[in-house]
Every structure is written in structure tokens, then in C-alpha cells.
Specification:
Blueprint lengths: L4 H14 L1 H17 L5 H8 L18 E4 L6 E5 L1 H9 L4 H13 L2
Helix pairs in contact: 2-3
């Protein structure tokens, strides 16, 4: 696009205002690629962003960040969308299935 910096900025603002869903998905894709080194196709991000419930606890994420894109740190495979609490819980258990099973058994044994 040609024009003055002010014209270009005005065009960009207008585009972002008129294409909010696309822009949000594109922003999420770029952020995820920068942060985790994983490139997700834009159509996959758009489809995932439509998900309204956490894949684990089924709550609606009402926070400003919305649901997080969850992935396996070893395989780089996208697993689903998680609320902040479930995403942090998996992270604190370092995705270790055995440790998580022990935590479940602990809760069962100590009800």
C-alpha cells in the first residue's frame, strides 16, 4: 500500500476494526509461533478460538486472555484449548502422567 504514514495507519486501524476475528486469530498464531516455535495453520487457530469451554474442566474462561492453546512440549503437537487454571496445573506437573496419577490417587485416598 502506498501513502503517507498517517494514511497507512488509518487504513490499518480500519482493517483491524472490520476484520477482528481474522486479526485475533492471526495475532494468536504469530504469538504462539514466537513463544513456542510452533507454526499452526491460520484456519486451525480460527477453529480453536471458536471453542468456548476448557477441554479439561469444561468451564468458560472469562479472563482477558481467554482459553490458552495447549501443546505437548516434547512432540510440539497441539492438544486443545485450556483455561488458565488447567493450563497452569499441567505445567506445574510438567506434563508427567505418573505424577498426575499419583495426585489423583492422593485425592481419592484423602477425601
Amino acid at each position: 500500500m502506498k501513502g503517507t504514514p498517517e494514511e497507512i495507519s488509518a487504513w490499518q486501524r480500519e482493517y483491524r476494526r472490520n476484520n477482528q476475528e481474522h486479526v485475533r486469530a492471526q495475532d494468536a498464531r504469530h504469538k504462539f509461533r514466537r513463544k513456542h516455535g510452533i507454526d499452526i495453520p491460520l484456519d486451525v487457530v480460527k477453529e480453536m478460538k471458536k471453542q468456548q469451554l476448557c477441554s479439561i474442566c469444561r468451564c468458560e474462561e472469562m479472563g482477558s486472555k481467554g482459553l490458552a492453546i495447549d501443546h505437548c512440549h516434547k512432540t510440539k503437537k497441539i492438544r486443545g484449548m485450556l483455561c488458565q487454571n488447567c493450563n497452569q496445573a499441567l505445567g506445574k506437573f510438567k506434563d508427567n502422567v505418573l505424577t498426575m496419577q499419583k495426585a489423583i490417587q492422593y485425592l481419592i485416598d484423602n477425601q
